[in-house]
Specification:
globular; single chain; three-stranded antiparallel sheet; about 100 residues; 3 helices; alpha+beta
Length: about 100
């Protein structure tokens, strides 16, 4: 089973990733230093994150999985630093958006 998941942190920011092993204990490879900037010492003492499966398949090619992951990153805008922790694909702000 392969999955695309969304992790939501206590500050509401998200990270979208893929897991080709469907491990219940895998929460992604977001940049720890980037996340740490958003949490002071007290906030680190106890917090809860949520991992939600957005898409799953019994089998898929690596190309299909990568495409799904990028599609969800763009859809959820988890690469926008205001919204999430994904750093790729690079977020390009739409200055014409209202």
């Amino acid at each position: 089973m392969v999955v695309i998941y969304k992790v939501t942190y206590p500050n509401g920011k998200i990270y979208v990733g893929q897991d080709r092993t469907d491990s219940i204990n895998y929460f992604g490879s977001a940049d720890s230093k980037l996340i740490a900037k958003d949490f002071d010492r007290e906030a680190r003492r106890s917090f809860t994150i949520c991992r939600e499966i957005l898409w799953e398949a019994e089998a898929a090619t690596r190309q299909e999985i990568n495409a799904k992951e990028v599609a969800f990153i763009r859809l959820l805008r988890s690469n926008d630093p205001k919204i999430g922790y994904n750093q790729w694909p690079r977020f390009i702000a739409d200055n014409n958006a209202a």
